[in-house]
Every structure is written in C-alpha cells, then in structure tokens.
Amino acid sequence: MVAIFCGAMLDGGRPRVFGDGEQTRDYVFAADVAAAFLAAGDRGGPGPYNVGTGVETSVLELGRRVAAACDSEFAPEHAAPRLGEVQRISIDPALAERELGWSAGQDLDGGLRLTADSMR
Predict the structure, then answer these.
(1) Helix-strand-coil percent breakdown of the chain, rounded to 5?
(2) What pTM value is reported for the model?
(3) Domain of residue 43, CATH code
(4) Rounded Cα gap, residues 57 and 107, in angstroms
(5) Number of domains within the chain
(6) In whole angstroms, what is the distance from residue 57 CA to residue 8 CA?
(7) What is the pLDDT of residues 25-68, one digit of tens each?
(8) Of 25, 47, 48, 96, most Cβ neighbours within 10 A?
(9) Alpha carbon distance 73, 25 (integer Å)
(10) Which residues constitute the domain of residue 62?
C-alpha cells in the first residue's frame, strides 16, 4: 500500500482507497523486516514470530502521512469496499523482541520519508 500511495502521489495521481478507509494495518519498514529475518536465522527457535510494530494505522491516516512524506496532498479516489476485507490488523511482536532481541527500528513517518525519497 505504501509503494502504491507513494507512486500515485509522486506521479500527481490520486491513490485509490477501498471502502471508508478506516480499516487498519500494522505497517513496518522493509529493512526492519529483513533485520527480523536475520535475527531469526541467528538466534531463532522454532517460531513463529510476528514481525510488526504493534501499532494500528488506518488507510486514511497512512495516506495523509504518505502525502506529507511526498510533499503532496492526499485526495483519494474512493472505491467500493473489497468483499471480505479484514477491518483491523495489528501484530504483537513481543515474542520476537523477547526471543530474538528484535524490534522495529524505524517509525512510520521515518520509513515513509525513506520510501518516498527512494521512489523519487
């Protein structure tokens, strides 16, 4: 979703939001996910480990924050809700932190800035 929103805003387009945009996700920076995989390879037991931040962010809030990172405005195109879409997702990364010593190092806004900069 981050790359789609960034791409649309950097190209002067309008990102599409399905439904009311209040559905939430736990967004984690890709480099932090890679670090979690490395930690699991080095110190991991049988798992599974949840890799996330434990913070829910709505699609609309994500759009506003992506727009700020892209120096753009967030004016989404709304579309019908997707059938069966999960409305709330939040990850509990406590086991990964306890057993792997891993936690997300990048906050959402910092990760969005890095992503937008790399897509420019």
Answers:
(1) 45, 10, 50
(2) 0.91
(3) 3.90.25.10
(4) 12
(5) 1
(6) 20
(7) 999 999 999 999 999 999 867 889 999 999 999 999 999 999 99
(8) 96
(9) 21
(10) 2-119
